[in-house]
Specification:
This is MATE efflux family protein. It comes from Venturia inaequalis. InterPro entries: MATE_fam. Belongs to the multi antimicrobial extrusion (MATE) (TC 2.A.66.1) family. The protein is mostly helical and 353 residues long. The chain is 75% helix and 0% strand. It has twelve helices and no strands.
């Protein structure tokens, strides 16, 4: 009897040694078996880049919509629209056709009225993207593009304003874009990154300026290259200039996909580096390059297979369509390299170089 009592006394009760506040919980050092695994870097990259792709394509479609409507008016109007987007102020010294220069001048005089709104939209969109709001541009363009299509039809076709109508439509939409972005910010952001306007707002700009100047020079050099191509095409003739304009527009339309992927990769890599997860940053970079290479290869196949079907979508002029078809194979090969270079540039930006 005594022995049994002694053994009983040496056996502790489970409830007496268990912390009742954590009873039934999983140890904090280990993940609970029912918790879902964290999303992979590839899924995060695809999820964040998808709205960027759609948004940038819709934004670039403003130019495409104008060209589609103006291209039906004639080759001179299409060529003038091209020069309005891609020319220096001394275009008349290089383009022998005075009528095209006059139309281009009229287009630019109206289009420049939308410059302030477009600049505000681009800066605000980049600020929201840095905060992880990749859908801001998408929702803004979904709001503005239907209005743009209606205005372009109304001014060009219904009011018969021609190239001036296309310019009026674009200038109006450019000034509407920041309002759409403001509505998105009011509905979907907390406002923590929108401090009040004080004297501190105008201090410590130099680090930002040092980062902005190389980017500015890079963009300007790229734009000048396209402008020179347009001016040289204008020396060859109206048909050549129209074909070059439509091909550049088409290539720019396609490039928005790897460009959007590069923005998402840059933001995601910088976030991983900021949180000290270099392994996940390298993983994001690898996935971005793989996606860009796959997209570029697929694009080469599509362009080579449908090179004769693509030009009639943009113009009804047989001469311009034939010129475009003859150049599409060369452009197809270039798109593979362009996609890879665009994404790798985003990776380099993400690591702060």
């Amino acid at each position: 009897m005594a022995t049994r009592n002694t053994q009983t006394a040496k056996t502790p009760l489970t409830t007496s040694t268990t912390d009742q506040s954590t009873y039934g919980t999983w140890p904090p050092s280990e993940p609970a078996p029912h918790d879902p695994p964290p999303p992979s870097e590839l899924s995060i990259l695809i999820t964040s880049s998808s709205p960027l792709v759609i948004g940038t394509i819709l934004q670039f479609s403003q130019v495409a919509i104008a060209l589609l409507f103006v291209g039906r008016l004639g080759k001179d109007e299409l060529a003038a629209t091209s020069l309005a987007y891609n020319s220096f102020t001394f275009q008349r010294l290089l383009i022998p056709n005075d009528e095209i220069c006059r139309l281009s001048r009229d287009f630019l005089r109206i289009l420049m009225l939308g410059g302030p709104g477009y600049a505000f939209f681009e800066c605000g969109k980049r600020l929201l993207q840095a905060q992880g709001h990749f859908s801001a541009g998408l929702y803004t363009m979904l709001f503005c593009i239907p209005i743009h299509i209606f205005l372009t039809w109304f001014t060009v076709v219904h009011l018969h304003l021609g190239i001036k109508g296309a310019a009026i439509s674009m200038a109006t939409i450019h000034n509407l874009l920041p309002f759409g972005l403001a509505i998105y910010s009011h509905l979907y952001t907390t406002g923590d990154c929108w401090p009040p306007l004080t004297k501190r707002t105008f201090k410590n700009w130099m680090p930002m300026v040092k980062l902005a100047i190389p980017s500015l020079l890079m963009v300007e050099v790229e734009c000048i290259g396209f402008e020179l191509l347009t001016l040289l095409a204008g020396q060859m003739g109206t048909s050549e200039l129209c074909a070059q304009t439509l091909l550049v527009t088409f290539c720019g339309f396609i490039y928005k996909i790897p460009f959007s992927l590069s923005i998402a990769a840059s933001t995601q890599i910088s976030e991983r580096i900021g949180e000290g997860s270099h392994r996940r940053a390298r993983e994001t970079g690898k996935h971005a390059v793989y996606l860009a290479t796959s997209f570029g290869a697929l694009l080469v196949i599509i362009l080579l297979a449908f090179r004769n079907q693509i030009p009639p979508l943009f113009t009804n002029d047989p001469g311009v369509a034939d010129l475009m078809s003859s150049v599409v194979p060369t452009i197809a090969i270039f798109q593979l390299v362009d996609a890879i270079v665009g994404v790798t540039n985003g990776i380099i930006r993400g690591i702060g170089k």
